[in-house]
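Message: A physicist's question: would you kindly supply an amino acid chain plus fold tokens?
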Amino acid sequence: MLTPQHAWLMLLFCSFSMIATWYWQQRCRNAGWVDVVWSALMGIQALLYGGFVLFKSDNSKSLSMSTPSLFVLLALGLALLWSGRLAWYLFWRVRGEAEDGRYQALRQLWEPKPGLKFFWFFLAQALIAWLLGLSFYLLFNSLSLADNTATGLQSSLFFLGLGLGIGAIVGETISDRQLARHRHQYPGVTCRSGLWRYSRHPNYFFEWLHWLSYPLMVSSVYWGQDGEVGWGLWIWLAPVIMLIFLYRITGIPYTEKQAVKSRGDDYRRYQQETSAFFPWWPKASPPNF
């Protein structure tokens, strides 16, 4: 079983990783590396938490291949698939492009000492990564405590969450590829094809949807035990936090500010026609008088 000491050690690990990333961006002047490392940290946390639960039980013996340990393996595979795909995608994007416009704007805003303010920004990203990483702490602890006769509603909820998580990864991958293809074919023009016809940020939507999968998997344990509610259900805060950040803080606001700056009226018209986050049918923009 995981203990609070494991979580505090993970906070130190995340902090040191982001400090090293900050030092690297000081040399290459590309703060976009924070996104790559953030994504990778999520998978590393899942691997460390899940690995400990898989190979260490309360009496220091290896877990057998019971239903709970199988669930841990499946949940760990989902987390690693999500983290690895996102980190790899961002790695090639950051490596091959100039610094993202969001970070360029922050660099100008924070003059004359952007380095110091980026330092605190990177530490804040470490804290966010750690807080969301506690989802894996709660998930694997809960699954490891489930009894070996987990059946019925418990298994159904778990596989519902697993399927949702996989589907969200597929949706995010498709939306990223559609956007990359459009940018290559029509540089400087707003993408309105594919999933981008129904949402201005389908990649963010599927990112958020993925984080709903872990609470469902945790809920499978407690619903499978005659409706017992435990501390593991705090994991429902994770998709709420992710929604707030994507919709109100670091996601849509900064992305759309840069899009309006670079594409002007074309993007303003897109804002009028297309849902910001949740996919919906586009509407006609009002006439200009």
User: Anything to note?
Assistant: Residues 153-185 form the longest helix (33 residues). The chain is about 70% helix and 0% strand.
